[in-house]
Design brief:
Number of helices of chain A: 7
Distance between the termini of chain A: 17 Å
Number of strands of chain B: 23
Order of helices and strands of chain A: EEEHHEEEEEHHEEEHHHEE
Order of helices and strands of chain B: EEEEEEEEEEEHEHEEEEEEEEEEE
Strand content of chain B: 35-45%
Strand content of chain A: 15-25%
Helix content of chain A: 25-40%
Strand order of the largest sheet of chain B: 2-1-11-10-7-8
Oligomer: heterodimer
Structural class of chain B: mainly beta
Distance between the termini of chain B: 25 Å
Radius of gyration of chain B: 21 Å
Largest sheet of chain A: 6 strands, antiparallel
Chain lengths: ~280, ~240
């Protein structure tokens, strides 16, 4: 689900779930006026379209660098993110008023026993497995990079005033480095995709607790959004919770919910989620 | 910022900060901490920051480097530790570790940024340079180039060595596990290693692994040289140059 939060009036987050593919895409836009929304919508649309087209036509060109060990899906997903970067960059180049717009993108493509992941920016993907919440993405932010270099501690990074400064995002440059990898999936794994509106407000142990104590993914997503809003809801909050089935091999069920507050005509965020599912 | 104080008996001989460059210790006068004693090798040991922790490394010295009472090749240092070389010792003061980076945000005099922004190439370079300059005395240099690696010491696995390149590495019998355990009754997912910004964490799976012979009670941050035991398989976690 996505929520505009308590401070902002617009929702720059966008997500889409393509249930027939098992594809989950989340983007957080940035840029003045309504351009953040344009960027995140363009990012999500492009990724979904490219993946759908690739399913129908495996010969569709693959953009960007790939690694030989990757599955066709991982290559396609990474390619889709490269393409989304190009589209946003070109759009901003064509429309000077959009200059400076950009977006994060985190996408997961699930198959029966594995997932492909592609990521740019500071939205996050987590996996909750055997009670531990483990982050599957690295934030491409200045403070996270400083932690990785040993200049800041994680606590200092959380308190930093520079948290919003990204080192990588879609649309900033003609090409972008995309993080992509594959992971095995196990029964009872819970996946979480979220924008920074959640992760800046709700600490990981609390997120883990909410996901663990609530078996229904819809309710879990609502809890997380409510927790972020209780603490100020400084930014838009988007949360996708995916729970793998405990019983059979037709195993994943997922949840998404349309935006409650962003239905004010721009058709953004949850408005684009596809209906249906297993 | 950490500080090293070279002591002889209870007298202070010399004090140096530890920065982006390693602090060298040895008998040769061009060391940062020259130790005038025949029991000390010319280039005896060095101390540097790596992944946010302070590390001492013995440089194949003849008589060895000791942290407190233990002879070490390489060890993580903590506040209050003493490094012994010959009859001298070096007191480790790591309490000021956090002061410098904390100042960074203020000194940079950056406006509070609520709107997310992407740094363009020039601004990004400037900020990273500024960050690097700030970290001059805290930043480690080569640490990032080291590859975290699992070396199998005993037990049946599909390879003898694994470079950890993923954010999450699964150890288990699953055909999709990175470190594949072989043999009967091995769990599909025995344990996992999660790469976080501040290091690599070992997390239990269907089994509880041990680190340096102690079963873990929650995610444990791994240090260079840690010994992990899981389902009868013993592996070494190291950073390969």
């Amino acid at each position: 689900m996505t929520d505009v939060g308590r401070v902002r009036s617009n929702n720059e987050d966008c997500y889409r779930i393509v249930s027939e593919l098992g594809l989950f895409v989340l983007s957080d836009g940035m840029g003045g006026e309504a351009h953040g929304e344009v960027a995140s919508a363009l990012a999500v649309e492009t990724v979904v379209k490219h993946c759908l087209e690739g399913e129908n036509n495996p010969a569709l060109p693959v953009f960007g660098e790939t690694q030989p060990g990757w599955s066709a899906r991982t290559k396609r997903l990474s390619s889709a993110v490269h393409l989304a970067n190009k589209k946003i960059f070109e759009s901003a180049a064509r429309h000077p008023e959009q200059s400076g717009m950009g977006a994060t993108l985190t996408a997961i493509w699930i198959s029966e026993n594995s997932l492909s992941l592609a990521h740019v920016g500071d939205s996050r993907a987590y996996i909750l497995r055997t009670g531990s919440l483990q982050q599957l993405t690295s934030d491409h932010s200045l403070v996270a990079e400083q932690v990785r270099r040993g200049i800041l501690t994680s606590t200092q990074a959380e308190e930093s005033e520079l948290q919003s400064v990204l080192l990588r995002a879609l649309g900033a440059n003609p090409d972008v480095e995309v993080d992509a990898e594959e992971q095995p999936l196990f029964p009872r794994d819970v996946l979480l995709l979220c924008s920074d509106g959640l992760t800046r407000m709700v600490m990981e142990p609390e997120t883990a607790g909410a996901l663990q104590s609530e078996p229904d993914p819809q309710t879990a997503a609502e809890h997380l959004v409510a927790m972020a809003n209780e603490r100020g809801g400084a930014d838009n909050i988007t949360v996708i919770v995916i729970r793998t089935s405990t019983e059979s091999k037709s195993w994943f069920s997922w949840f998404r919910r349309g935006a409650r507050k962003s239905s004010n005509g721009n058709g953004h965020a949850g408005g684009q989620g596809q209906a249906g599912g297993k | 910022m950490a500080k090293l104080s070279l002591m002889f008996e209870e007298k202070l001989v010399k004090e140096v900060p530890v920065g982006s460059r390693a602090v060298s210790i040895g008998r040769s006068p061009d060391n940062d901490l020259p130790v005038d004693n025949l029991a000390v090798s010319n280039y005896h040991a060095r101390v540097y920051f790596e992944a946010g922790r302070l590390v001492v490394e013995d440089l194949d010295s003849l008589n060895g480097t000791f942290v407190n009472d233990m002879r070490v090749e390489r060890a993580t240092l903590h506040d209050g530790d003493s490094i012994w070389v010959g009859k001298h010792h070096i007191k480790v003061d790591a309490t000021h570790d956090t002061a410098l980076p904390m100042d960074y945000g203020r000194k940079a005099n950056a406006p509070r940024i609520n709107e997310t922004m992407v740094l363009d190439t020039k601004v990004r370079r400037d900020m990273l340079q500024q960050a690097a300059a700030m970290g001059e005395r805290t930043q480690f240099a080569a640490g990032r180039l080291k590859v975290p690696t699992i070396v199998v010491l005993s037990g049946r696995t599909d390879q003898k060595e694994y470079a950890l390149t993923n954010k999450l590495t699964v150890i288990g019998k699953s055909s999709l596990a990175t470190v594949r355990l072989k043999g009967w009754f091995k769990p599909a997912m025995a344990a996992q290693i999660n790469q976080r910004d501040d290091g690599y964490y070992l997390v239990a799976g269907d089994k509880i692994p041990s680190v340096n012979a102690a079963p873990i009670s929650g995610p444990v941050r791994l240090n260079d040289g840690d010994l992990i035991e899981i389902c009868g398989v013993r592996v070494n976690f190291i950073f390969r140059e």
